[in-house]
Specification:
mainly alpha
Length: 120
């Protein structure tokens, strides 16, 4: 299963090929709960280091993969998945708030820079 984790991380970072749903389902045939756990782990790790829109699209694909696995496998611990989705939702909300604060700080810095430029 470590192989799938490496493949997913390289895909999100843009250094590896896209992992097809068939490949994920092949791993999920063995242990769907472990694949779900790995998908959440990769998403959480990559959310901390997001650098652009492309990464967000790739993370969105991973979230869709979770949905596909949930739809196709009955022996998944859905309670754990719901809790992890809730935590992921909270993390995304927190990141949005932090980014808004950073943007506000940048706007204030530009205003201060403009004041200094005008004074000179």
């Amino acid at each position: 299963m470590r192989n799938i984790e490496r493949q997913l991380k390289s895909f999100v970072k843009g250094t590896g090929p896209k992992i097809t749903y068939d490949t994920l389902c092949a791993y999920a045939d063995r242990n769907p709960n472990e694949v779900i756990h790995i998908l959440f782990k990769v998403i959480n790790d990559e959310l901390n280091s997001i650098t652009g829109i492309g990464n967000l699209d790739k993370i969105r694909e991973l979230v869709q993969s979770i949905g596909i696995i949930l739809a196709n496998y009955d022996d998944i611990n859905r309670g754990v998945v719901v809790r992890k989705l809730g935590k992921l939702d909270e993390k995304i909300d927190r990141l949005k708030i932090e980014n808004r604060k950073k943007f506000a700080d940048i706007q204030n810095a530009f205003q201060e820079l403009e004041k200094v430029r005008i004074e000179l």
